[in-house]
Amino acid sequence: MSKARSDPLHKSDPIYALFFIIPSVFVIVLIAFWPLAQTFYNSLFKSALMFPQNKIFVGLSNYGALWQDPRFVNDLWNTVRFTGWSVSIETVLGILVALMLNKKFKLRGLVRAAVLVPWAIPTVVSSEMWRWMYNDNYGVINSILMSLHIIKQPIVFLAFPATAMPAIISVDVWKTTPFMILLILAGLQMIPDELYEAARIDGANAWQRFWSVTFPMIRPTIGIALIFRSLDAMRVFDIVFIMTKGAANTETLSVYNQWTLFTRGFITPYFGYGSAMSVMIFLIIGVLAIFYVRMMKIRLD
Amino acid sequence: MKYKNLRKVIFYIGVIIVLLYFLFPFYWAVVSSIRPPEELFSSHPTLIPFHFDFESYVQVFTERPFALNILNSTIVAGSATLLCLVIGSIAAYAIARLKFAGKVGIMILILMVSMFPQVSILGALFQILRSFKLINTYPGLIIPYIALTLPLTVWTLQNFFRDMPHELEEAAYIDGSGKFNTFWRIVLPLAVPGLVATGLLTFIFSWNEFLFALTFEQLPNMYTVPVAISMFTGYYVVPWGQIMAASVIVTAPLVILVLIFQNRIISGMTVGAVKG
Fold this sequence. Notes:
The complex is a heterodimer of chains A (301) and B (276). Chain A has 301 residues and is mainly alpha-helical. Chain A is 73% helix and 4% strand. Chain A folds into two domains: 2-42, no CATH class; 64-300, MetI-like (MetI-like fold, Orthogonal Bundle). In chain B, helix 3 packs across helix 13, helix 5 (103-113) packs across helix 7 (139-162) and helix 7 packs antiparallel against helix 10 (192-208). The interface between A and B is large, with 103 and 94 residues.
């Protein structure tokens, strides 16, 4: 007790704390929680964005309509497909490149910088770069595939469901694998060398060392990277919007939601319906987040 | 010995593939931006351009308000970063060092926001900003960006403050310095590495953000860079040369930023995750 009194750092000072905390709380309530509550309120009405006075209370019926809407269900599936594929490919590639960068070699600094750049540029820009490379008439990918005689005719990659989604996934992989690489690399660098020494003395080969030393040590990092990445991938908007605008069965939830709110719901009474979709997306991602946090806690125990 | 050499060769082939994979799209954008149209629109483009033509760069600035778009992005991202650092650092300090009731609740509140799907608040936030007459204004983007980047900033900085030794602050208090003064004069200067790391991440996020910018800025003169580039594509024509030129223009400063602050950015990215 006496120590606490002589130590001003550990005195309770709610007034100061209040002053220090209030700006952050204010901005977050204003920009996140108020709109969230408002979105829920909007979802109870049939209304258009431009005519807020002509709204009709419909209760929760917009939510029922959501699950009757084949486009919503299909886009949910597209989003899950996108997330599953891109996050798994990114994880595997991320581990491989991180293992490479964990070695000392010439060009290592260059590779590390090169890896960081795709992550740093706007997603719009990376999507435009790849959209150009995938172009059917003038794209370099078609040109290379044709000069290697892999294909005879140029492929219109972004027009067919069979190729459009993989093309979109490839852009996401290119753009966000760097995040995985750098996170996993940070995890790798925390493994003490003694562990490898010990494994080597025990006669473990490289493969065994990976599975018995490296992988268990980086598993928590991979877990966290997976959580970040999959919550992020579930919200994907930019890549799809730029590459296809949702055509060729690539539409994801965010793209459909934005369109429903601001194009369809602008003057026709679909703004309320779009708001219900927003709430549903929030709930889906929220449940996923809680599930992940639970899973991690169990592992930490 | 031979076996070891072979392994080395395979390793370096891997390194080269990785480098090519991550760098080729940039190379291609640069090359495409300086090709004359007849070379750009060829079904078998050459890997190295034969002729150089900087017309696309001229067009970007003469046919469109792209200079204004760059200015918009700079103002929005710059202000969001500065304000986020000011607001976030004092909150982080309070969480790390001061005692008060409801601290855990506030941490949860702040961290929850980092999981918010942006689209979930898009419609209502538009209505709210419209009621404050903030659509098509800078604050209409700056304030949302502060909110979106605060969680990471507060989380990273409070980790940083926690790791700082108490002695300096204690000495300052004994000398009669107030809470705010101590924070401003003693603590903040020591936290510069952490501030730079989180500031860079905030800037990059705000510079790159698309969904809010697309929705809240609807006049071409107010577009930020990503929105402006997305609007280059018209109904009938896609000006690929201009799109690539604009992409190169906005990528260049980020590349320089990344090269200078590589280690800071990486530490900012990984600190939250690795520490858990």
